[in-house]
Design brief:
Elements (H helix, E strand, L loop, with lengths): L9 E4 L8 H16 L6 H14 L5 H8 L6 H13 L8 H10 L4 E6 L5 H9 L7 E4 H4 L9 H10 L6 E5 L7 H6 L2 E5 L19 E3 L11
Parallel strand pairs: 1-2, 1-4, 2-3, 4-5, 5-6
Helix pairs in contact: 1-2, 1-4, 2-3
Length: 229
């Protein structure tokens, strides 16, 4: 198959590392955390650099613990919880790049657009608001609103999205980045799948399992129209 079928009607996008670079959100949150931890002997810029370095070297789920220890501060659970909450509730400094904005503007003329994303609340809606995605995408589904047990790869959010779109699965495409969770459920439900894979993504090096292979892989969202009828 060299292209998607001619009867495709709906395009559903993942959010993080698909419509914008997720590292931009990470750095936006780290700026807020750095400002919170700033002190006379540790300015915000230096703390921001420590956070970025800890994120790159890993483990990513212990970035705050690592940086607090480097600053000589206690990484007690209450402080960690405060920092996690601050990170997830901050209003991110994000914007769509011009090519993505033009692409969504053109696609919505001919296709029904949707957004289906995992992630914590209110972080995901705050990202959508910052990116102004409501201008382009009328059907937005946050899996967290269904319950954490329905995060991808659960088929439930894809079934719900099918209901929202009122479009048959065989005429629907999911465009996402993470082969560990993004493609298994939609493939089993009869959707078509497209993986966006390029340098700089947090999951760019993941190899999909055989039953999670995307139908297509592209290196830029601007390549998507070449697959469409």
């Amino acid at each position: 198959m060299n292209a998607l079928p001619a009867d495709i009607q709906a395009l559903v996008f993942d959010l993080d590392d698909t419509l914008y670079p997720e590292i931009h959100y990470v750095r936006s949150g780290f700026r807020v955390i750095a400002a919170r931890l700033a002190a006379p002997d540790h300015d915000a810029d230096s703390i921001f650099q420590l956070l970025c370095q800890a994120f790159e070297s890993g483990p990513r789920d212990r970035v705050f613990n690592t940086v607090l220890q480097k600053l000589g501060l206690s990484d007690d659970p209450q402080l960690i919880a405060e920092l996690v909450s601050l990170y997830r509730t901050h209003r991110p400094d994000l914007q769509l790049d011009n090519s993505t904005r033009r692409l969504l503007t053109d696609l919505k003329k001919n296709y029904t657009l949707g957004l289906l994303t995992d992630g914590y609340l209110p972080a995901q809606p705050l990202k959508v608001e910052a990116l102004q995605l409501q201008k382009y995408i009328p059907h937005i589904l946050y899996t967290e609103e269904l319950g954490r047990q329905f995060w991808k790869p659960s088929p439930v959010p894809f079934e719900k999205m099918t209901e929202l779109l009122r479009c048959p699965p065989a005429q629907t495409v999911y465009i996402a980045d993470n082969p560990a969770k993004d493609f298994l459920a939609p493939r089993r439900l009869g959707w078509f799948t497209v993986r966006l894979q390029h340098s700089g993504q947090l999951h760019q090096n993941l190899t999909p399992a055989p039953d999670s292979l995307p139908h297509f892989t592209i290196s830029s969202l601007t390549d998507l129209p070449s697959l469409l009828p």
